[in-house]
User: Which sequence fits this backbone?
């Protein structure tokens, strides 16, 4: 931003964290700039996005990322009477009042009428008064609200936190004239659009890399890596042709056991302690690793009672619900951790299969599609031992060849992961720049009156 000039003169705002502002800017509060503030309601909605002309209630995610997303909604059941006064109007400023600590305080402007899309109770709707442009008001809240969130938001740091109306309304801000606001808003729209286009392009590139990664994994566990190998028909539509010397099996044939985590009274909320033996549910499996939550654990005594569901080094833990195929191999350090209710513990037959090969199969596109199609459950995909056990698997007969295949695959995947990491870092830098530009503009660090 070095090519942008500062204002000629500044004054002390009288607010420590606001610092100096342009001399001709007014120091005021958000409450003096808004005409109204309200929050919506929280009916029991359907678990689907509304169709055209259906009534719907927004989800709090509609404000994430600084761009309004009207598709982030849930359909209102026909049995409930809609509340038309909660429908969105052009110029509404929406603020996330309850979300994770990273996202609470997010703010967007509604750019058109959505009369059948209603405000939810996790959002505030602010009406901008005659002294402020809606987009400038949203930028002020976005910039200054983050400071307030760090200090004033209430709730557990790892879950939902809340920010009160009074915190937002009492934010001190620097305010230029309407004409100057218009200059700043126009500049921000142009610059953020340019950055957003780059972010979208790089994000799509990351998506393509992930698709390529999964396609590579799928190819390796169904075709191998030798392009000249003689093939045979597996007689399984999901697998197609496989190398002639490979075996064909069901997942259960390659396992000593497949067990669901404890149900019912075996493990209840009252059994959980902080800092005990970790319990691994699907949410604790990330990037092929077990990432336990210290609050979701049990005492040594309870772990002993639940020893049937204890996992051992070399076991595989995989999601029973949600994102089917999400899995991790249990390490020596994780020996004794408990398989959670939402997970399945797989104990492989190491004489027939390398555990990492089974893990890789679960990451393939064909396996995930098969599991989702075969799963049960009306609202969320669910597996059981029988369904997972039926998954068709093709594999080299010898574990030595399986290991060789995995080593080659790991090297190829690592190259893709390196490229993805660089692209993700670039996206993060662009997003930081976007935030820095908005902050500099609405706090008067740079003079934009001749920049548009």
Assistant:
């Amino acid at each position: 931003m070095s090519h942008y000039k500062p204002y000629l003169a500044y004054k002390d705002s009288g607010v420590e964290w606001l610092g100096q502002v342009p001399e001709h800017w007014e120091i005021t509060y958000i409450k003096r700039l808004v005409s109204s503030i309200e929050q919506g309601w929280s009916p029991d909605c359907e678990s689907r996005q509304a169709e055209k002309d259906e009534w719907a209630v927004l989800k709090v995610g509609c404000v994430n990322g600084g761009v309004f997303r009207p598709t982030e909604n849930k359909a209102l059941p026909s049995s409930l009477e809609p509340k038309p006064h909660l429908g969105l109007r052009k110029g509404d400023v929406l603020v996330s009042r309850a979300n994770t600590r990273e996202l609470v305080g997010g703010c967007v402007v509604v750019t058109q009428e959505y009369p059948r899309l209603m405000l939810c109770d996790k959002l505030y709707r602010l009406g901008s008064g005659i002294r402020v442009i809606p987009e400038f008001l949203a930028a002020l809240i976005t910039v200054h609200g983050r400071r307030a969130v760090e200090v004033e938001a209430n709730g557990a740091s790892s879950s939902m936190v809340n920010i009160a109306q009074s915190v937002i309304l009492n934010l001190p801000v620097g305010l230029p004239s309407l004409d100057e606001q218009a200059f700043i808003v126009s500049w921000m729209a142009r610059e953020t659009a340019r950055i957003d286009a780059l972010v979208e392009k790089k994000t799509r590139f990351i998506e393509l890399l992930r698709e390529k990664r999964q396609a590579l994994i799928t190819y390796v566990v169904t075709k191998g890596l030798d392009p000249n190998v003689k093939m045979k028909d597996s007689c399984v539509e999901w697998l197609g042709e496989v190398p002639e010397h490979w075996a064909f099996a069901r997942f259960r044939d390659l396992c000593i056991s497949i067990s669901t985590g404890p149900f019912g009274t075996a493990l209840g909320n009252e059994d959980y302690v902080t800092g005990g033996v970790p319990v691994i549910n699907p949410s604790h499996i990330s990037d092929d690793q077990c990432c336990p939550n210290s609050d979701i654990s049990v005492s040594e005594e309870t772990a002993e009672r639940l020893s049937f569901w204890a996992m051992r080094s070399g076991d595989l833990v995989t999601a029973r619900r949600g994102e089917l195929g999400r899995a991790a191999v249990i390490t020596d350090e994780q020996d004794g951790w408990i398989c959670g209710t939402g997970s399945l513990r797989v104990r492989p037959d190491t004489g027939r299969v390398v555990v990492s090969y089974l893990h890789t199969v679960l990451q393939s596109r064909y396996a995930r599609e098969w599991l989702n199609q075969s799963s049960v459950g009306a609202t969320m995909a669910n597996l059981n031992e029988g369904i997972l056990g039926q998954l068709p698997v093709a594999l080299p007969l010898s574990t030595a060849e399986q290991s060789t295949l995995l080593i080659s695959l790991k090297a190829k995947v690592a190259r893709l992961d390196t490229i993805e990491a660089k692209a993700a870092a670039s996206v993060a830098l662009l997003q930081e720049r976007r935030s820095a530009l908005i902050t500099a503009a609405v706090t008067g660090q740079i003079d934009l009156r001749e920049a548009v």
